[in-house]
């Protein structure tokens, strides 16, 4: 076969390093590219995705594999499109997922385009997911074989055009196998703990980050229960997220949870665990990986956050393209701003943003 | 996709490959002649002899005496020693507190001067330059003060290749009794370095820009120039730069300077032809581009452009994938997204300054290489402009 060129998005971590090594072993010309993302000035050293330390590691891996390695500076764009989105989301009372936004606009945006401009045939990442081409020429995004590592949730934004050029070399592997391969390939990857934190927070609590960045400092307001009774005062809605239990500073003799934020009235609404359970919600800004929903109405399973279980549900496509999802069983902590991602069996059909939660 | 064998190096201002004879000359001083030049014994004597022979070669090239040659770890250290050493000595002796540098200095000067201002209370003044990046000697005359500690103006700029009128500026400083330093790191392979003609009191060079090893350089310090050491210790280099001299590298540097002497006339004849061919090609065939720096008063090996609507970091990557190694300005700045201060000092917009490309030629550059480079460049600019 003609030698194909693939750009691998590298991070210095074990997954992207093994992805690069596997593709090289399969006969691809591999080019490593690492993105330089935004950190607050003077705090560069703590950005999890692109610390000088992870950059050094990624370069070591590239040198070990003898592949060219470049950095793509997307700091301005990352700030403009991701950090701002994150800050504004909190200002509007939602709990945004900047990683998904980053995949959509940066990783399969700026980086993907850069890869193609380098003349690459493919773009690859170390995500755990599978990209399967059927006989009709349609690409399907499937969950990873390692269900504990599956990252299809954050990839639901991919389109047919993205998938046509995207490789996920780790989709059929377990994390344990990937670690073994890293050792077999003698890759100098760090054994750093895995983190679910946002890269630009650098381990910091998002609340203190918000304090520094919100244009209008969050202002205190009432905490009320579902019957409208005032129970105390909150420090500013941005500091709370749906389902939060700790740090409410309210004692009513039973555990209480944040169940809603009323931005217009600057009011935090709390209730019992039972009251956080919801069954119906509206999903907007939907990406259907195949370009359209499979039907106007169908049964499916849904994930409502990265680590939520797969929930049985019924989906109805509404006239404006948004969807009404009805869960078979109520589930707690369904949070506006987070992604709802749709599955049928192994396949990720797409997903969108949880807009409005109904009881 | 390129392999290691068909890469074309067009970044001689970043660094150069070592001359074979320089490598050969160094080897004995790692092996049998490893002595410390300060030692009394025969091992020390051989090392000292080699050290002093190298010093003579360099002093002769600079037309100065051997005591005026201070070995350092390279251009950056030489610049640091010149600025810090003279600024502190001048302030101690005569209360002079004003430092005057140009807007197109290498960071080794500009950042050092900025630190002297920020942390040590010096009064830093930046001389503006014309749109080609040249310092006007008359402006130096106007800006000199009775309390000026020193003036530093780069001989030939690393990012834009423009050559400054050093003898004229030096003359003005001398008339006023102000020490004058020039960073001659980029100038060394191509321009005369006679410190008497240049009217300089201090001059920095770094070996790896002229086919010598990295990590070694020289600061010329005219006898009588007030200067304090920045690195104290055993008192080597006339007490101005303590630390056991790096004998093999110093030997390699002097051999590289001989290599320059042997080839300079030929380079100065052949490289401008290649340089001007590339400048002309870009001018004719790539719209919305501009040469940066002076069209003629520039280093013979130096070509630099800005391209509208092109991200230079991306351009460099695309070119490298095809095997062409260039730079966006100075190698030290790679990875930083902020536009070059030197390009901004020329009056270029931030957007244009972010689309810079530097192509620097050297002893092995051929016309064929430049032709294929130019074809590739046109292609990549088109891709990046969409």
Helix content of chain B: 40-55%
How many domains of chain B? The number is: 2
Beta fraction of the residues of chain B? 5-15%
Number of strands of chain B: 12
- Please give the oligomerization state of what you see: heterodimer
Report the sheet-strand fraction of chain A.
25-35%
Total of helices of chain B = 12
Distance between the termini of chain B: 22 Å
Largest sheet composition of chain A = 6 strands, antiparallel, barrel
Helix content of chain A: 25-40%
**CATH class wording of the largest domain in chain A:** Alpha Beta
**Biggest β-sheet strands, sense, barrel of chain B:** 7 strands, mixed
Brief rundown of the structure:
The complex is a heterodimer of chains A (359) and B (386). Chain A has 359 residues and is an alpha/beta fold. Chain A has 3 domains: 5-201, Rossmann fold; 218-271, Roll (SH3 type barrels); 277-358, Beta Barrel (Elongation Factor Tu (Ef-tu), domain 3), CATH 2.40.30.
């Amino acid at each position: 076969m003609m030698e194909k060129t693939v750009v691998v998005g590298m991070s210095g971590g074990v997954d992207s390093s093994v992805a690069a090594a596997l593709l090289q072993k399969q006969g691809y010309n591999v080019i490593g590219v690492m993105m330089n993302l935004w950190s607050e000035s003077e705090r560069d050293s703590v950005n999890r995705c692109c610390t000088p330390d992870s950059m050094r590691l990624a370069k070591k891996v590239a040198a070990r594999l003898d592949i060219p390695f470049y950095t793509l500076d997307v700091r301005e764009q990352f700030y403009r499109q991701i950090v701002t989105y994150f800050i504004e989301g909190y200002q509007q009372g939602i709990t945004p997922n900047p990683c998904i936004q980053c995949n959509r606009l940066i990783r399969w945006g700026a980086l993907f385009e850069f890869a193609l401009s380098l003349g690459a045939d493919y773009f690859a990442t170390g995500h755990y997911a599978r990209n399967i081409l059927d006989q009709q020429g349609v690409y399907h995004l499937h969950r990873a074989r390692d269900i504990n590592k599956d990252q299809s949730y954050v990839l639901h934004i991919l389109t047919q055009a993205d998938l046509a050029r995207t490789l996920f070399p780790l989709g059929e592997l377990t994390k344990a196998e990937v670690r073994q391969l890293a050792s077999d390939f003698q890759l100098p990857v760090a054994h750093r703990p895995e983190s679910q934190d946002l890269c630009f927070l650098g381990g910091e609590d998002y609340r203190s980050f918000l304090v520094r960045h919100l244009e209008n400092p969050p202002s205190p307001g009432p905490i009320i229960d579902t019957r409208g009774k005032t129970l105390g005062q909150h420090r500013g809605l941005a500091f709370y997220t749906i389902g939060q239990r700790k740090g409410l500073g309210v004692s009513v003799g039973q555990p209480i949870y944040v169940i809603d934020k009323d931005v217009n009235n600057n009011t935090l609404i709390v209730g019992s665990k039972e009251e956080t359970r919801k069954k119906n919600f509206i999903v907007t800004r939907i990406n259907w990986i195949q370009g359209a929903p499979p039907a106007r109405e169908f049964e499916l399973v849904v994930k409502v956050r990265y680590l939520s279980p797969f929930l049985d549900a019924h989906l109805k496509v509404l006239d404006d393209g948004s969807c009404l999802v009805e869960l078979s069983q109520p589930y707690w902590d369904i949070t506006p701003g987070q992604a709802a991602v749709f599955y049928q069996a192994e396949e990720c059909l797409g997903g969108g943003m949880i807009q409005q939660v109904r009881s | 996709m390129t392999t290691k064998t068909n890469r074309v190096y067009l970044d001689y201002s970043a660094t150069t490959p070592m001359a074979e004879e320089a490598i050969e000359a160094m080897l004995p001083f790692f092996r049998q002649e490893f002595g410390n030049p300060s030692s009394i014994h025969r091992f020390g004597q051989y090392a000292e002899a080699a050290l002093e022979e190298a010093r003579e070669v360099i002093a002769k090239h600079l037309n100065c005496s051997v005591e005026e040659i201070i070995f350092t770890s390279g251009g950056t250290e030489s610049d640091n020693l010149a600025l810090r050493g003279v600024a502190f000595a001048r302030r101690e002796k005569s209360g002079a507190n004003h430092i005057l540098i140009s807007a197109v200095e290498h960071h080794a000067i500009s950042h050092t001067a900025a630190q002297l201002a920020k942390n040590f209370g010096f009064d830093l003044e930046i001389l503006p330059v014309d749109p080609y990046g040249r310092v006007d000697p008359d402006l130096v005359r106007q800006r000199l003060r009775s309390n000026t500690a020193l003036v530093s103006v780069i001989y030939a700029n690393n990012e834009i290749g423009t050559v400054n009128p050093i003898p004229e500026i030096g003359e003005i400083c001398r008339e006023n009794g102000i020490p004058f330093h020039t960073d001659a790191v980029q100038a060394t392979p191509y321009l005369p370095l006679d410190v008497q003609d240049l009217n300089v009191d201090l001059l920095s060079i770094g070996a790896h820009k002229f086919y010598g090893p990295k990590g070694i350089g020289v600061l010329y310090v005219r006898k009588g120039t007030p200067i304090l050491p920045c690195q104290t210790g055993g008192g080597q280099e006339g007490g101005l730069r303590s630390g056991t001299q790096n004998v093999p590298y110093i030997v390699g540097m002097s051999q590289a300077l001989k290599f320059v002497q042997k080839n300079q006339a030929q380079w100065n004849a052949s490289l401008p032809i290649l340089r001007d061919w590339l400048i002309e090609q870009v001018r004719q065939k790539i719209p919305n581009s501009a040469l940066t720096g002076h069209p003629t008063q520039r280093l013979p090996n130096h070509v630099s452009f800005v391209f509208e609507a092109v991200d230079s970091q991306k351009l460099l990557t695309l070119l490298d994938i095809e095997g062409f190694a260039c730079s966006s300005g100075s190698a030290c700045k790679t990875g930083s997204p902020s536009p070059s201060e030197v390009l901004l000092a020329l009056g270029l917009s931030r957007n244009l300054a972010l689309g810079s490309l530097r192509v620097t030629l050297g002893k092995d550059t051929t016309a064929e290489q430049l032709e294929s480079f130019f074809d590739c460049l046109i292609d990549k600019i088109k891709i990046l402009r969409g």
